[in-house]
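Many introductory courses stop at the sequence. We go one step further.
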Amino acid sequence: MDETSELTTNDVTTQDIAEVIAELEQYRERLVQETTETAKRAKLMRVSVMAKLEPELAKIDAALEELRNQQATLSGSN
């Protein structure tokens, strides 16, 4: 087993989760921004590009929600 699979909830702090949330939010923003800029250069319609990007954004949003729930759970148990 590698180190990441050995981590338990007790090993993760609210600070760790906050850092991951911040990084994931930055990634989401960068993904939207860079995709939009590329679409403009390629003269693609923003609506069609965002429609194709939406499934990935939904995954990111779901991960963010799960992380925030974990963070709230850890904060409540401390």
